[in-house]
TrEMBL record:
Protein species of origin: Ramlibacter monticola
GO molecular function: alpha,alpha-trehalose-phosphate synthase (UDP-forming) activity
Keyword Glycosyltransferase belongs to the record: yes
Gene, per the UniProt record: otsA
Descriptive protein name: Trehalose-6-phosphate synthase
Enzyme Commission number(s) from the entry: 2.4.1.15
Metabolic or biological pathway: Glycan biosynthesis; trehalose biosynthesis
Pfam families associated with the record: Glyco_transf_20
């Protein structure tokens, strides 16, 4: 394989474990090919400052970054990426802000990335572009003459065709996907939405085996559900920080069962719905009340986007009223933490918990579900309550699957999870572990790159957008 060039909005130093499983998995391929990771530096600079690429070495890997001006950042990142694509792709048309200036900024930054990246490329490089911020990047690169093989992976869901069609310029976005050689989605449902969109809106023809032809170009599309690095997570679970966390939690909650939720504070994660289901559980089961505590970690995220302030207030008010109405002098039902918890401590918290509540309203995959399973004690494992609307639900069939909009149903699943006999917990956990071990992050990474290498070489025109 040629050198791998990964492109994403934000980059991480793959040598730091805090960077997470994705960076670890990519680091392996990047290291072995002496690859490059290209993205935004995270810095916002004055428009008059130089926009040169800054290079850093991370072992054999080159990290290459560009800065963004305030105007570009606001339109590209806050505006189009997180104010249009994120809500619509998570089925929240009501939260989208279709300001016409955003799409111009989105395109401008993708053009900037293409302009800065192209001179750094070698003829046999293979490019892997990540996520919704960079959908038109391949089209912009092709317009400048780039002929290398380029793959794209969407980490978030793709909505059904009619919802996608609500985005002004949706046809431009999907046409841009055809500039890639391979387009990957998290789930079969997302892939099906892509197929139905291109058939109905773009009159594309299926060629064979996952290939589609439209706009005079053929693209391969497939489902590549992302996994975790089970071994890396096990090591993290055995490290002192996680062990200490586990022991502290066990001591503090020796007489109570713990339920845990770990999310970014985002409206897609279904946090108010989860709190209402827990409140319902407390209302319906007065005798069980003080036997369980829910720890909800909701780390701050995108705080300068309006919809995020609203969800923060809603969640705070729900937690406050649950604690006010149900709390006792020696017991509070909810511990809500609006801060980031170090990744190294999470496995300890997961292991000390009897139940994980992973109940997003919509999620591309959701890795917390898989990390919770990997951190369990196999002899006495906890139970995963999982939304059927998380991509992970396509794979994790032995979890307790719930509809997060159904408050009563979710409350009933919480009761079932807390009372599940040991034998059943073990059986479910064993089956789930088999899945997350087989379909781990290395399987995902290798599977995508092999599929990308196998795509038919095709003469790439340069008139794209
Ligand atoms: P996210 O929406 O960020 O990612 P998720 O998959 O749940 O969602 O988490 C990604 C990573 O962040 C995990 O390693 C998790 O442990 C960590 N994380 C989440 N909340 C945290 C918290 N409060 N504190 C510390 N760490 C936390 C997007 C998509 C997902 C998809 C991933 C990967 O939205 O659907 O699974 O990308 O493709």
């Amino acid at each position: 394989m040629g050198r791998l060039v990964v492109v994403s909005n934000r980059i991480a130093d793959p040598r730091q474990t805090a960077a997470g499983g994705l960076a670890v998995a990519l680091a392996e391929v990047l290291n072995s090919t002496g690859g490059m990771w290209f993205g935004w530096s995270g810095k916002i600079v004055d428009a008059t400052e130089s926009d040169d690429v800054v290079f850093k070495r991370a072992g054999p890997v080159t990290l290459a970054t560009v800065d963004l001006s305030q105007v570009d950042h606001d339109a590209f990142y806050l505006g189009y990426s997180n104010g249009v694509l994120w809500p619509v792709f998570h089925y929240r048309l009501d939260l989208a802000d279709f300001d016409a200036g955003y799409i111009t900024g989105y395109r401008r930054v993708n053009q900037l990335f293409a302009r800065k990246l192209l001179p750094l490329l070698r003829p046999d490089d293979i490019l892997w572009v990540h996520d919704y911020h960079l959908i038109p990047l391949a089209a912009e690169l092709r317009a400048l003459g780039c002929r290398q093989r380029i793959g794209f992976f969407l980490h978030i869901p793709l909505p059904p065709p009619l919802m996608l069609a609500a985005i002004p310029g949706h046809d431009w976005l999907i046409r841009a996907l055809f500039a890639y050689d391979l387009v990957g989605f998290q789930s079969k449902a997302d892939l099906d939405h892509f197929a139905r969109y291109v058939e109905t809106e773009a009159h594309a023809q299926p060629v064979d085996d996952g290939r589609w032809r439209a706009f005079g170009r053929t693209v391969q599309a497939g489902a590549f559900p992302i996994g975790i690095d089970v071994q890396e997570f096990n090591e993290l679970a055995r490290a002192p920080e996680a062990v200490e966390m586990y022991e502290r939690m066990r001591m503090e909650y020796s007489r109570r069962k713990l339920l845990v939720g770990v999310d970014r504070l985002d409206y897609s994660k279904g946090l108010p719905q989860r709190m209402r289901a827990f409140r319902e559980f407390l209302t319906k089961n007065p005798d069980l009340r003080s036997s369980a505590t829910l720890i909800q970690i909701a780390s701050p995220s995108r705080e300068n986007v309006g919809a995020y302030t609203e969800i923060l207030h809603e969640l705070e008010s729900l937690c406050g009223s649950i604690n006010g109405n149900f709390g006792e002098l020696d017991w509070m039902p909810v511990r809500y933490i609006h801060r980031t918890v170090a990744r190294a401590r999470l496995p300890g918290l997961y292991r000390a918990s009897r139940v994980a509540l992973v109940t997003p309203l919509r999620d591309g995959m959701n890795l917390v579900a898989k990390e919770f399973l990997a951190a369990q004690n196999e002899e006495d494992p906890g139970v995963l309550v999982l939304s059927r609307f998380a991509g992970a639900a396509e794979q994790l069939r032995e979890a307790l699957l719930v509809n997060p909009y159904d408050t009563e149903g979710t409350a009933a699943a919480i009761l079932l999870a807390l009372q599940m006999p040991l034998e059943e917990r073990r059986n479910r956990h064993r089956a789930l572990m088999e899945t997350i071990r087989r379909y781990d992050v290395h399987w995902w990474c290798d599977g995508f790159l092999v599929a990308l290498e196998r795509t038919m070489a095709e003469e790439k025109g340069t008139s794209w957008l």
